[in-house]
Amino acid sequence: RHSFPTRRSSDLAQVMLYDIVGRKVYESTLNFTQATGAIQINIDDLIDGTYILSVVNSTVNYSSKILKVQH
Known about the structure:
- By secondary structure, this protein is an all-beta fold.
- The chain has strands at 12-19, 24-31, 49-56, 61-68.
- It is built from no helices and 4 strands.
- A hairpin with a 4-residue loop joins strand 3 (49-56) and strand 4.
- The radius of gyration is 12 Å and the shape is elongated.
């Protein structure tokens, strides 16, 4: 799971996760008014590797590199 701080907003946000070659492996829409200050995405089913997390709405444009390794 990956968490990051969010700004409270009444906007819907698109949450997307891409593999290293740019294929979208996850997509969801999130209502920031229902967010608790962090977003958690379960990536247990993904293979080990590098991913790019993108969260976009009218006030937020966030991206982060995620490295998934098996514990």
